[in-house]
TrEMBL record:
Name of protein: ABC transporter domain-containing protein
GO molecular function: ATP binding; ATP hydrolysis activity
Annotated keywords: ATP-binding, Nucleotide-binding
PROSITE patterns linked to this entry: ABC_TRANSPORTER_2
Lineage of source species: Eukaryota, Fungi, Dikarya, Basidiomycota, Agaricomycotina
Sequence ranges assigned to domain ABC transporter in this UniProt record: 4-232
């Protein structure tokens, strides 16, 4: 039985924009650790947010389930979502110590795991939340999010602020935790160094669809690294997009060299003067 699944999933943010996800059909087995690969805008974050129940799907016939439960109507327990927006929340930038913050969200209930994570993430309990860096705040988020045991972990680029050592220690912890408890991880990232032996599956998204569905990743049978696989996929994505641009099916990116550019600041600002 799939622990994470989506069927006939299409999603649009509004009625006048192209869909962000189109015809998604995937199934992930229990205990799997899947890496989502795709360029910016491929739909990875949207998919993770939907699995987390943070966005509502209204497409007829679409199903989004975790542990065989509808994530919108019967939210399953044991699901943890960690995204990049947390560190910008003003609540977690208040004048409060890390120790008090973790206690306020129930850290005392999971003291053994909390303490283990504090060591792995190299967190100082005396840090003041309003004084620490974004990377240090990210470490606190990870401790907060991971200290309660999870069955399904949805990660959206949450290691981007971490230094190499802390990131590697965290990945080792997540892999070990997943293997010991049979827990499942779906992880979207753009950083592939040090990930070779982490995933059980890899998947490739492009323009809201899967080019490569979650596929078993067995490092012992690979002649290349995950980094190189991701690089090759992203190069294919760029060529695919450029072909769409050449045929007029999408707007071209990059410099517009035939477009007149104001040669002085007065001309530039006059162009955007709406007072007349």
């Amino acid at each position: 039985m799939a622990v994470i699944s989506a069927t006939n999933l299409t999603y649009s943010y509004n009625s006048f924009s192209p869909p962000s996800l189109v015809g998604i059909n995937i199934q992930l087995p229990p205990g799997s650790r899947t890496i989502l690969v795709g360029a910016n805008g491929a739909g990875k974050s949207t998919l993770l947010q939907l699995f987390a129940g943070k966005k509502l799907v209204s497409t007829p016939g679409a199903e989004v389930k975790i542990k065989d439960q509808d994530v919108f109507r019967n939210s399953p327990s044991g699901v943890t979502f960690l995204g990049t927006e947390w560190a910008m929340n003003p609540v977690v930038r208040g004048d409060i110590s890390v120790a008090a913050f973790l206690d306020s969200v129930g850290g005392y209930r999971h003291k053994e795991r909390r303490d283990h994570l504090l060591d792995i993430l190299d967190v100082d309990l005396d840090w003041r939340m309003h004084k620490i860096s974004d990377g240090e705040r990210r470490r606190v988020q990870l401790c907060f999010g991971l200290m309660a045991p999870w069955d399904v972990l949805l990660l959206d680029e949450v290691t981007v602020d971490l230094d190499v050592l802390v990131r590697q220690d965290l990945l080792n912890f997540l892999k070990d935790d997943s293997e010991k408890r049979g827990a499942t991880i779906l992880y979207a990232t753009h950083i592939f160094d040090g990930l070779n032996d982490f995933p059980t599956h890899v998947a490739h998204m492009r323009f809201g669809s899967f080019v490569t569905l979650p596929t078993p990743w067995d490092l012992s049978k690979k002649s290349t690294t995950l980094y190189q696989v991701a690089l090759d996929w992203l190069k294919e994505d760029r060529e695919f997009r450029k072909e769409l641009e050449r045929t007029g099916k999408t707007i071209a990116r990059g410099a517009r060299r035939n477009e007149a550019v104001p040669s002085d600041s007065e001309t530039f600002y006059r162009k955007y003067d709406y007072s007349h």
